[in-house]
Amino acid sequence: MSLCHLQRLHCIISLGIMLGLVLIPQTAAAQIGAIGGSFGGGAGDDMYHRGPVLTESGYVLDKGQLTLGTYFIYGELKDTSVDYIPIFDDYGFPYAYIRGDDEVTLTSTQMTVSAFYGLTEKLTVGGYLYPMLNYDIDHDITFSYQGASIDTSTSESISGFGDLKLYSKYQLWKQELGRTRVALFGLITLPTGDDEVGIEGTIWTAGIAGSHRRGRWNLHGDASVSIPSDENYDTSLSFDASAVYAVGAKVGLSGEVLASVSDGETYLDISPGLRFKAAPNIFVSGALVVNLQSPELSAFDYQAFLGLDLLF
Q1: How far is CA 300 from CA 134, 163, 269, 270, 287, in A?
Q2: Which of 107, 87, 103 is nearest to 152 (CA)?
Q3: Any residues with CB less than 8 A from the CB of 210 and at least 6 apart, and which?
Q4: Closest Cα partner for 222 from 14, 38, 29?
Q5: In the predicted structure, residue 213 carries a pLDDT above the cut 60
Q6: Cα–Cα distance, 291 to 311 (Å, whole number)
Q7: C-beta separation of 289 from 306 below 8 A
Q8: Which pLDDT tens digit goes with each residue over 233-291?
Q9: Which Pfam families does UniProt cross-reference here (predicted)?
């Protein structure tokens, strides 16, 4: 997806809105989309805290097992743009330019709700949606001309109901003792959200995930491809890896690396996280996603995840 071609002062002011609509799908879709997959991180109450928070795992839910969850996501992203506004003479020809430096801060607040069910011993199905999406965009703009400068600021806000995602995962292979597992997963993102915050067209995602358990350590990884039906979006490849260390029978500490490639550009994030068994069948999860590389975001821009899962 590309940013709008900046046109005069109006487009400088509106850049933040476009930034919100562009950066969120490109940089956060993989991480947010992986939440649903990690719900099957442990087949059973005694293993659930060993699953990753964001990376897909090779586990599926047991037959008849149900999970209900909700996640709150807060993020702060920054970007800086520069444009030149022409000054025209009486004949309509530009004779000078005013420089405009726009520092944009995008603050996002999101909520997801989800449900996943073990349809068979090998197949988990479910879905989740975003009942709340809110983006606040703040601009600090400096206009410069012939040594003089003027500072100004403005704010925009976008909110609405997000899209619906349908999810499935199939246990392709499982070691006899269950320590190593491989699964195929699929995700369909439907454009059911409000126009201001939803996508255009449908996005089809398919991938493979694997998990291995050795003592207190649990290793997870996935690779997937996302293909959009709308030409304004680019096909992307994602590669994620997670190491989870079980601290006793209730806490799992995770470290994750989240990478994706889209339109020749590479996105790279790291994410420390944890999952805590607060009560029988009740789990609290948290993660902090920090940007390391992105063609659009500033270094160390972040998103924070906090979630509650109920396992039945």
Answers
A1: 21, 27, 9, 10, 14
A2: 103
A3: 58, 180, 181, 182, 183, 220, 221, 222
A4: 38
A5: yes
A6: 31
A7: no
A8: 899 999 999 999 999 889 999 999 999 998 889 999 999 999 999 998 899 999 999 99
A9: Phenol_MetA_deg
